[in-house]
Design brief:
It is built from seven helices and ten strands. The protein has one domain: 3-Layer(aba) Sandwich (Rossmann fold), CATH 3.40.50.1360. A hairpin with a 2-residue loop joins strand 7 and strand 8. The protein is of the alpha/beta class and 241 residues long. The strands form two sheets. Strands 1-10-9-6-2-3-5 form a seven-stranded parallel β-sheet. Strands 4-8-7 form a three-stranded antiparallel β-sheet. Helix 1 crosses helix 2. The longest helix is centred in the first third of the chain and has 23 residues. The mean pLDDT is 97. The structure holds 6-phosphogluconic acid. The site of 6-phosphogluconic acid has 13 residues, from loops.
Length: 241
């Protein structure tokens, strides 16, 4: 794993930096394998990034979009990460419908949605059962509590090792989430973290020792590249690495 920390002066620069790094990695993946698979994070931080990517001149037919986590709500629900991404980005670009892979939250139970997405991912990558695919890019956010994707502190999802996708739990509300194992197989994992409210969790995550159960983002130790993109408000007390 190669790890780097980039602290940007403000949120706009954070978005611009993330945009440039993502475009580079998308183009590299397509040059090497004629395709790029990206797993997106939800929340508020990435929204201006997604709006910027809507203006990018990319070979959209070569790009496959997945979600690293999702709330167990319909696509039309205001909390839907898929719905948000469609509004600010995907409805504005000529990406084939077959290249957009939302988590099937319309299924009757969260575990059914997790199992089905697990199957869809394995099928997309043409994998044997039990193999773990390598996403070209996994975008992640981080909550004030140090969660990432929907891997929340002290939840059962943190211990799931035999699945690609599992059911997360946010204060009793079901979520769907990539597991550590799937995220940690990515070629390039990029955290986008903004705001002073993240400082405490970041300090715990970058501390030499700590508890992954308490701060799940500590569990993101990918075999590929790990980039932490922070704005100055989030990164206060840390340094570029
Ligand atoms: C979600 C996310 C989640 C998010 C963090 C940070 O579905 O909410 O995937 O992991 O990235 O909670 O959210 P903000 O960017 O809104 O701070």
């Amino acid at each position: 794993m190669t790890q780097a920390v980039r602290i940007c002066p403000d949120r706009q620069t954070l978005v611009e930096t993330a945009y440039t790094l993502i475009i580079e990695r998308v183009r590299t993946a397509i040059a090497q394998r004629q395709s790029c698979s990206i797993a997106l994070s939800g929340g508020s931080t990435p929204q201006p990034l997604y709006a910027a990517l809507a203006l990018a001149d990319l070979p959209w037919d070569r790009i496959h979009i997945f979600w690293g986590d999702e709330r167990y709500v319909p696509a039309t629900h205001p909390d839907s990460n898929y719905g948000m991404t469609r509004r600010v980005w995907l409805d504005l670009v000529p990406i084939p419908a077959a290249n957009v892979h939302p988590i099937p939250t319309n299924l009757a139970a969260p575990q059914l949605a997790a199992d089905e997405y697990d199957r869809q991912i394995a099928t997309h990558f043409g994998l044997e059962a039990g193999s773990i695919p390598v996403f070209d890019i996994v975008l992640l956010g981080m909550g004030d509590d140090g969660h990432t994707a929907s891997l929340f502190p002290h939840t059962a999802a943190l211990s799931v090792v035999d699945r690609l996708v599992t059911v997360g739990d946010k204060d009793g509300q079901p979520r769907l989430t990539f597991t550590f194992g799937l995220i940690n197989h990515a070629q390039s994992t990029i955290f986008l973290v903004s705001g002073a409210s993240k400082q405490t969790a970041l300090a715990a995550i970058f501390a030499p020792d700590g508890d992954v159960n308490a701060y799940p983002s500590r569990g993101i130790q990918p075999q590929g590249e790990l980039l932490w993109l922070l704005d100055a408000a989030a990164g206060e007390g840390l340094s570029n690495k």
